[in-house]
Amino acid sequence: MADRLAEFLIRIQITSEAHPKLDGGWFRAFDYERWDYWGSNADHGWGAWSIEVGWTQAWIPTVLAMRELKLNLWDLTGRSRIARHWEKTRREMLP
After folding, report:
1. CA-based Rg of the chain, rounded to a whole angstrom?
2. Which of 29, 28, 30, 25 is nearest to 13 (CA)?
């Protein structure tokens, strides 16, 4: 299932020579009948060319890269010493 999902996400990735800033991203919608990206300017607050760059665009390539490297999140963070910064960060962020 994970392989099929990864292959699907790669197939629906935006490719555009005309709009290089969109190339490599993912639109908010996909038309399965036409097998093409789809966006609607009728979506209140969203244009037809909108992509959600805040979370989807970061997680998909990150997970695909980890799959390619045969790593998982725990492999990459297992030796992290980030916890040593927690108390100072907590005091600053949550007074």
Report:
1. 18
2. 25
- For 12-67, write each residue's pLDDT tens digit: 888 889 888 888 888 877 788 888 877 666 667 776 677 777 677 788 888 999 99
pTM of the predicted structure, to 2 decimals: 0.63
d(CA 45, CA 67) in angstroms, rounded, equals 35
Domain membership of residue 81 as a residue range: 2-93
Number of domains observed in the structure of the chain: 1
Strands in 1-95 per DSSP E: 29-31, 36-38
Cβ–Cβ < 8 Å for 31, 38: yes
Q: Each residue of 70-92: b (16+ CB within 10 Å) or e?
A: eeeeeeeeeeeeeeeeeeeeeee
